[in-house]
Amino acid sequence: MTRSLTRRRFLRALTGGGLTLAAAGGLGVAQAQTLGLTSHTRPLPGLRAPVRVAFLSDLHFGLYVGPGQVRRWVEATMSARPDLILLGGDQLDRRADQGAADLLSELARLRAPLGVYGVWGNHDYGSFGRYASVYYGAARDDWSPRRSALEEEFRRSGVPILRNQGVTLRDDLHLGGVDDLWNGTPDVHRALAGAGERATILVSHNPDVLPDLPRPAGLVLSGHTHGGQVRLPLLGAPVVPSRYGQRYAMGWVEGAHATPAYVSRGLGTSGIPLRNLCPPEIVLLTLHPA
């Protein structure tokens, strides 16, 4: 009798725990599917007229994200009517043999008066075949030509990738983008060369470049961390993919030379298709003269 009761209680507890975990998992999946637009207004030294910037980071198109979800993000971005649209890296999260045509068919709908630009992130390099993983498969010897080919595909779709490059968007505004910190060779000097006295925006997928910026920038935009993706009440994020832990997890932070930076929570998910207390975001920045 006692043995049977103990077994019954054990099974009831196990079932209850499983249901709790299932409910938590379902809630995490639901949170990962939400979409928010985070708006900020800030001065940017060197600007002579305001500019509205939409920043989309960490789409992670592939394993958990499909064309429909990207379409929602594109439509939400276009409804905000930004002057400039920036992609913060990790656009791709799929095997090298799967290509990017279905992603680019959605991204090609992005339009802005000052253009649409992006940078590469560490998962993009996995998608080139730069390194081996269970998901990406074996590393490929042709990863560098594949990177160049994808850069051309993105450019033809209206999304030039800035890999240690810069572009003057207006007489008062310069945009630079650097290569991925983990798998590339980021060069801030090259990205900001020619900026002169113009206001500057620098896009770096990984915020860990911030403490070692060789020169000041007006504003740095990063992603990569997902804000930790899963955050716990009072404790914050148990895991942040940064050598600096919580320092650059998300939101407004500061780099070398007192450079302001915003670290986006991103849009897609990595590792697991869940989020908790860390909703996806499109960042809309209204920048005005200082």
TrEMBL record:
Pfam families: Metallophos. Residues 52-227 form the Calcineurin-like phosphoesterase domain. One of its GO terms (molecular function) is UDP-2,3-diacylglucosamine hydrolase activity. Keywords: Hydrolase, Metal-binding. PROSITE patterns: TAT. One of its GO terms (cellular component) is membrane. The keyword Metal-binding applies. This is Metallophosphoesterase. It comes from Deinococcus koreensis. The lineage of its organism: Bacteria, Thermotogati, Deinococcota, Deinococci, Deinococcales.
